[in-house]
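Render this sequence as a predicted structure.
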Amino acid sequence: MARDEIHDHDPGLEQLLAIMRRLRDPQTGCPWDIEQTYATIAPYTIEEAYEVADAIERGSIDELKGELGDLLLQVVFHSQMAEEEGHFSFGDVAAGVADKMIHRHPHVFGEESRDKSADQQTRDWEAVKARERAAKGASGVLDDVAVGLPALLRAVKLQKRAARVGFDWPQTTQVLAKLTEEAGELVEAKDQLGPDEIEEEMGDLLFVMANLARHLGVDPEAALRRTNAKFTRRFRSIEAALAAKGKRPEDSDLAEMDALWDAAKVAEKS
């Protein structure tokens, strides 16, 4: 593809698709882009999705525009590789998701009434997805819950699937009791068992924590991101306070840093 063909496109999706075709051209493209595969690009796809979430978390609309563009590039990249192999094109991807949205919203695009609660629409959505999974031959309740999801998010999705068929504690108090039990088992494993057993008990505890978050209506990934940001913010306050004294964290001790941490907490709430 000649250079002018790239610049002849109006800025937008068609130009982006043309750019990716050029980058992947075996004769005139970019060597790095040419050697990529679905597997090598997948980590970038995940990273870009998280960067979108990060921009949203920080309320940065300008950055969100750029991050959404980076995420769109990932879809274009995967689609171009698939088209080269004769599987599908970007157009097929867009048409497929459009068909899916129409099919899953009969109350908007079909004859069903829009007079439904959000809960009823969620149940209807899940029923449609269940029929789609059955049509694909996914017979198990937990089939097609993506293995590559972040562990906490996948735990919640697995639990939601199991809950649909009644495998769930009806009361949050029961989850809290299980949390106490698993915490005790972790302490016991720490004192009596080896690394593998400790890891297993830690996993059990985290799984129950994800379940508790689900029962409380909390997204555990979002909650942990928020706490990570809070920890980062407060620790930087410690560093700044120490720097004002001509010190670094390694020159301090836990008692001093803990006091500075408490001061940072008070300052945030004032």
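Summary. Residues 220-244 form the longest helix (25 residues). The mean pLDDT is 90.
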